[in-house]
Amino acid sequence: MPAKGTSATTDALLYMMQTIHEALDGGEAGARIFFADFSKGFDLIDHSILIQELYKLQGGIPRGTKLGVVLFMVMTNSLLANWHLRTKFVDDTSAHEIIPRNSISLLNFAVSDIHEFANEHNMKLNPKKCKEMLINFLHNPNFLLRPIQIGNNIIERVTTYKSLGVILSSDLKWNPHISRIES
């Protein structure tokens, strides 16, 4: 998670990418990212739950934001609190993990927590827009990767994904993002 007090999309992306680059640099791990998409995130806020979350919130209200965005941030403040490899920026939420060679992926637990959180807070995840990305340069990783599911929906694995305005690629190259900028 980006350092407390930072709020730029750049901070959120740098945190995620730095964590992944550092882990993959040793050549003994891969990474897996889950990108969550909340359906009508700002429109589905349950006011009674929001009031409870406001009591728990420690910190100020960001300047220059619209109230709906702020209230959504309050609602999702505790989301993934126990999953340290997470990135949250307004309504964009992702969880990622580093998977050492010959290990089991645990990202399904984070996705399950996100889904449970959404249900408990009367919010909806959109399984068709949620995506998964695997970043792996190991020749023989021996990962055990169960498909990520939300309910009965298997989440699509993608090689590129636009997160916070930047196109991320599973090969960690910037060609897709640069091509998008040039077009």
User: From the alpha-carbon coordinates, what is the Rg to the nearest angstrom?
Assistant: 17 Å
Bin the strand percentage.
Answer: 15-25%
Distance between the termini: 32 Å
Q: How many beta-strand segments?
A: 11
What class would the helix/strand composition place it in?
A: alpha+beta
Strand order of the largest sheet: 3-4-1-6-9
User: Which word captures the global form?
Assistant: globular
Low-confidence stretches: 1-6
What can be said about the biggest beta sheet? 5 strands, mixed
- The chain-level mean pLDDT equals 76
Assign a percent range to the helix content.
25-40%
Could you give the order of the helices and strands? HEEHHEEHEEEEEEEH
Number of helices: 5
Please indicate the count of domains. 1
Describe the structure.
Residues 32-167 form the Reverse transcriptase domain. InterPro entries: RT_dom (IPR000477). This is Reverse transcriptase domain-containing protein. The model is unreliable at 1-6 (pLDDT under 50). The chain has one domain (8-182). It contains 5 helices and 11 strands. It is globular. With 183 residues, it is α+β, with helices and mostly antiparallel strands. 32% of the residues lie in helices and 25% in strands. The protein starts with 8 loop residues before the first helix and ends with a helix. Strands 3-4-1-6-9 form a 5-stranded mixed sheet, sandwiched between helices. Strands 2-5 form a two-stranded antiparallel sheet.
